[in-house]
Amino acid sequence: MAEENVPSKDHWLPIGEIAGRSGVAASALRFYEDQGLISSRRTSGNQRQYQRSTLRRIAFVQAAQRVGLALSEIKQALDSLPDDRTPTRADWSRLSKTWRNRLDQRIAELERLRDDLDGCIGCGCLSLQRCNLYNKSDRLAERGPGARILNVGIPGEL
């Protein structure tokens, strides 16, 4: 009897319902589909429908984006799963282990930014007096555009 209440794998939902349930705009769902992150089928009226399991994939995409992964990396991770299979806790654990080093590097970068933000944002613009200590005579300009101090690490290690 309990099996009657379990949605079948073939349970399809219209794009509006998927958008409402996931909190992701329909335009973003179409973009995700264009990027190969999710897939849909078309009704006879050419309306998109998604399997219920797509909700888990969307949550997976959102979680991965929150930790700073690019859509190409997320797609690669989803491509490692069997087609149309809902990612499980074990899948997320396996994939997150492959991202752990990158996440640790990002955390360290954010901690450096937090700790140095009141002294210098690493822009090399010499607009703050303190920048003269980190980037005297604008020597970092020779290394190219952008936040050179943030890109190389701790300011004292130029």
Would you give an account of this structure?
It comes from Kribbella caucasensis. With 158 residues, the protein is mainly alpha-helical. It has two domains: 9-111, Multidrug-efflux Transporter Regulator, Chain: A, Domain 2 (Orthogonal Bundle); 117-158, no CATH class. It has seven helices and three strands; from the N terminus they run E-H-H-E-E-H-H-H-H-H. Strands 1-3-2 form a three-stranded antiparallel sheet. Strand 2 (41-42) and strand 3 form a beta hairpin. The chain is elongated.
Task: Spell out the blueprint of helices and strands.
Elements: E1 12-14, H1 15-22, H2 26-34, E2 41-42, E3 48-51, H3 54-66, H4 71-79, H5 89-116, H6 131-134, H7 148-152
Antiparallel strand pairs: 1-3, 2-3
